[in-house]
Amino acid sequence: MKQYPIILLLFLLMLSCKEENKSRPEAEIKKEIAGVFDAYVNQLNTQGLKGIDSYFSKDDRFYWVEDGLLQYPDRAALLEGIEAFYPSVRSVHMTVSGINIHVIDDNTATLFSLYKQDFVLNTGYSFHLEGAFTILLTPEDDSWKFLIGHSSVKKPRDTDQ
């Protein structure tokens, strides 16, 4: 008779500790992120830098690194940089390849991509960048946003060594 309260207690504990599996299918998350990144690239190619702020998280943990240096410690600094550069840009064209999305959990994923980007300034001066992105994404406002980013530009290697 003393076993019944213990068994009942164990049963109640098991029910209260049961984890709900709310995990979404990885393929679904990857498809969403690929869509967001495609839209980001399309936005750059059709509207330039105008409006790309919607892809960057409003989370206080946001930052962006360029070539290993903390370039933008927060979202406001990044947007200030874009706003300062935008008036001088006539056009931007970016192509991406080698995209690799890794889902860590329902709220965290990484994206790696190679890129080639051509800028034409209002002065007529143009330049080309080629490199790689690594981006940590998180869901926010019903979409995936860039929380932490790193972009590197391919540099010539010294072949005399």
Automatic annotation (TrEMBL):
PROSITE patterns, per database record: PROKAR_LIPOPROTEIN
Pfam families given in the database record: SnoaL_3 (PF13474)
Gene3D superfamilies listed in its UniProt record: 3.10.450.50
Domain of life: Bacteria
SnoaL-like domain mapped to chain residues: 35-153
The protein, known as: DUF4440 domain-containing protein
Organism name: Leptobacterium flavescens
